[in-house]
Amino acid sequence: MSGQPWLGVAASSLAMWVVMMVAMMLPSLVPTLWRYRQTGFGRLTALVGVGYFVVWTVFGMAVFPLNIALARATPIVVGVIVLLAGFPPAQCWKARHLACCRRHRARP
Q: What's the pTM value of the predicted model, to 2 decimals?
C-alpha cells in the first residue's frame, strides 16, 4: 500500500480486520450469545456481542503498527529462510532424517 497516506492505510486495514473478524468469530459466538440470552439476559445479549467485537477491533488497531513493521521486514525474513534452507549441514541433517522416515514407512 505504498503511496497511500498513513490514515488511509490504517482505515482500510481496520475495515479488512473488522470484516475478517466478524466472518471468523461470529459462527462460534452465536451459540454462546444464544445461551446467554436464554438465561434471562435478553437485553444485554446485544451489548455483550457488540462489546466482544469492540474489544477485538481495539486489539486490531493496537496491533496495526506491528503489522506494518512485520510487513516491511518480510522480504528480509524470507531471504534469510531461503539461505538457511540451503545451508549444507542442514542438508545432511535433512537427508539423514528423510532416510530414517523412509525406513519406518517401508515397514508393513
A: 0.59
